[in-house]
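Figure caption, in words: inputs first, then the predicted bound structure.
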Amino acid sequence: MTTATAMRIPEPPTTPSAGRVYNFSAGPACMPESVLLQLREELMDMHGTGIGLLEQSHRASTYDRILAESFESVRACAGLGDDWEVLFLPGGSMQHFSLIAMNFVPKDGWVAFADTGLWSHKGEKETACVRATKKTFDGATCRFDHVPADSEIADCAGAAYFCYCSNNTVEGTQFARPPRVAAPLVCDATSDIFSRPYDLAAHELIFCSGQKNLGASGITMVLARKSWLERADRSLPPLLSYSNFAKTESRPNTPPTFGVRVIGLMAKWTHDFGGPAAFGPRNKAKAAHIYAAIDRSGGFYRPSMRGDCRSDMSISFQLPSDALVDRFVEESEREGLCGLRGHREWGGIRACVYNAFPAKGCELLAEFMDGFAKKNG
Ligand SMILES: *Cc1c(COP(=O)(O)O)cnc(C)c1O
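Bound structure (pyridoxal-5'-phosphate present):
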């Protein structure tokens, strides 16, 4: 018989410390203060070596340890087995749309795309520079108001893979689960990795820029099935080859050492606070405050997405006029609610509430929204 000895999972801080604001920025985005404080210390002296984090050689034993810790923390969060590889590559995830195609699509092959928003739209264009692509779902036809059900996706049979974004950071829609299609899955999970339980193992490859749930910009984390990596094109220059990054522990040349450390600390922080399983309900509750304010505004706040596709990471809505958007941004900033202006190509307001975003800020934003709608509606 087992006794219920489940350890209590600690809750992350719900407010920022004095002098800091609620930062709703889409990315680079807010980070846990404990991680920032640890980094501050490590910048001067890493593990008592007398050498700071940025000054450590990527061939030194201290970096061996940094790298091992980052791999381990990412693996703990991802919950993937030994048949998966973790890679850290320089550059943002936008670069990977073409790179993945170069590695995994024969010259006469093609990539199936779900165009569900700005990032997958841009991603398709990047991919099309190197290989043929086909939109198997075109979100423009529904003004990106939802992500497709499996039945809305055109036949993908014969595609080298099906590429999609799990969370549409600009439009505020999110896949509830990976689509089921007749091609291997590749996912840009930049804006919702480790934010909820999600079937990562349904994919062959997942890639994410650092600056959202993983910390610093300029680095991309890739999770890839080993058997898939083996199929990578071996004629590519080594610095463009995923299998070479796997073979060299993600340091074929000087790696982005700072970003690797930050991802490790972010993943450890996420894991310490219960991992994706604990952050899922937390993030849902955070987002629910803001959606409730939208829903009770009597049409003053206008979300463009369908109710069943609402994202828990990026909450996007329009106001009756551009002048009201300006006023909303100005007045909310005065209350310490910052970074709320929507993406420049989408307009309106957007609140990104990643794992590290303190919960209280969502309640405060909802209160602010109630007051603003009353005054201006
Ligand atoms: C933020 C974001 C990106 C940005 O990619 P970068 O190359 O790091 O600028 C890509 N995809 C998604 C889904 C994003 O949310």
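The chain has two domains: 41-272, 275-376.
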